[in-house]
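[step 3/7] fold_predict: job queued, chain A
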Amino acid sequence: MAFDIDLIQKVYEQLPGKVAAARKLLGRPLTLAEKILYSHTYDAPTRAYGRGHDYVNFSPDRVAMQDATAQMALLQFSTCGRDKVAVPSTVHCDHLIQAKTGAAADLATALDVNKEVYDFLASISNKYGIGFWRAGAGIIHQVVLENYAFPGGMMIGTDSHTPNAGGLGMVAIGVGGADAVDVMAGLPWELKMPKLIGVKLIGKMSGWTSAKDIILKVAGILTVKGGTGAILEYFGEGAESLSCTGKGTICNMGAEIGATCSVFAYDEKMGDYLRGTNREHVAQLANGVFKDLRADQEVYDNPEAFYDQLIEINLDDLEPHINGPFTPDLATPISQMAAAVKEHGWPEDIEVALIGSCTNSSYEDISRSAFIAKNALAKGLKAKSEFTITPGSEMVRYTIARDGMLDTFNDMGGLVLANACGPCIGQWARHIDDPQRKNTILTSYNRNFAKRNDGLSSTHAFVASPEIVTALALSGKLSFNPLKDTIKNDKGEDVLLDEPQGFEMPPLGFEVKDAGYHAPAADGSKVQVVVDPKSDRLQLLAPFPAWDGKDMMGLKLLIKAFGKCTTDHISMAGPWLKYRGHLDNISNNMLIGAINAFNMETNKVKNQLTGEYGEVPQVQRAYKAGNLGSIVVGDENYGEGSSREHAAMEPRHLGVRAILVKSFARIHETNLKKQGMLAITFADKQDYDKIQEDDNIDITGLTNFAPGDQLTLVLNHKDGSKEEIKVNQSYNEQQIEWFKAGGALNVIRRNVAAEVAA
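[step 4/7] structure written:
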């Protein structure tokens, strides 16, 4: 359905003038990302902004929130003093449904178990003018693509895969809840001007290769942090040949390389998708500003001159990839997979194959997989692995059911799950005989960190396209290459699967009886939002205390995290999702997945008060009870993965004062700053090795805290010796104000109160 037509029309009316002004300001042709960014600055720009250097205030067109993060975002918004959101905003209930037995039963269980949270989200959305998509309506990113995304727009969302909307030409960026509060309150939203990575796609895909393989290839090139602080802009004849939802898949998984977002230029494929999802008027408006929804031609003619980095991929030569295990950037072409399985000793048998998720649940994805399933059935084959299907939205589910695809999957041996995130985010009651046994699963999801899907460190999770996942489910082997290998059927014959075929859009059009949307009340002033003070799922927030104006002295080392430490390690999902609206309860999962560098164990750190080892949250609560500050030390790309701000709020709530790492992932660093935390990095990364288990640490220089200045750390070792090291910080004036005030929300609350008083 079409939403916000007036808003979109206004954006397009102003776009040509804003683009022309930006082109004049920069004195050169513009990339697409630059056109969108400069046309969405909070105030008219008066100079060119330095990529990767200058902080810029932006004015996004809309905000999207999923239920797990919306709880904390809206609890924060409810304290800021506004009566209604300033921009169109939505809440999508997709994270709290656990996959267990099948769609109908799992949804019914979720509606019962999560009733308190769903009622809270529905009522607070109703009160503040926020659109509400109930449980079962679908995954936030698929629903946004179908209903809200539009070329040339700018959106933020409280989920790291918000960039999915880049498949429809939108700059869509994952953020923490405090950032969403800024925009919903009508305030400027701050972002460091991203660098630009151009990805030129030449040639055209065929056979088994899909859009998913493009981003799996790019992940292998850039690694999990190669896109940090950058927008990936795709262009070229290969980009034009991709379906809109295929583009969305690529933009979605750009989060796995740390990219701020990814974006494609407006083209006919996007117009087809807009028209196919009942947004013909949006397509007409976009066609009227077609040139401003693409980079200038000079950019395409000479891309090396306009991007900070340029990657070129020939789709004629691209083959399907399988990425993993344990990290989404370990990319292996399928022709090399059998050898890799043998070389690394990965479990060859695929115990569960799972397709769907926000990354690959479009009609095109499902139709290509269903083709393989139907072809396999005709050749006497059924799934040898467990096989699950997760539709991305109720519209997709209803349409593929109407077109017989769900029946085909059922005949193949598949199980249809609810329209929700499910196993992709750890919401999976997996049945396994021995949780300690090394095993392999294969998904069409986006993320495959250890324990991500089923909570088991023994599970080797691999990522591929839906059609590759379906084919390998039929063979049951990770080493199977459907491009050339045969499978023995029920008659003992060796059969070769046909190349997948599918439809970008349903030939009979999309159809749905009830999409699951609830519009907010026109006047929410009389709507009551009640939170039971005895609830263990929801908790009203108290402001964090302001900085005391002093240097931080005598900080206890809570943990020195070794290696990869994602937001899943800092604040796990899965069974902990139910506490996302209760800060104190969910803080009991703080850093329980991080590896302690001193004993290489998880959730076992030394309590300096007793000398004994305990669980991380309990040790930190002991420090808090003693009014003692602490510090967390981490490795490279600390906080990669999900946008969840709980990973920043939990240490803040429990009394951690500072996070010192080799480098941060973008969203997590911002989340820490928003909550009034001190986020700092080693000036010399080798100083990480100087941190000792019993250290008490002083941080000096804060009384003269200024942008660009280094701070000094004094490591007070147990033997009485001391070492000084320098650390860097990236705070600007506004972020320093957040730190001093005790968090950005305290600043917002103060400013709104002053505005009302005036």
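[step 5/7] annotate
The first helix runs from residue 5 to 26.
The first strand starts at residue 55 and ends at 58.
exit 0
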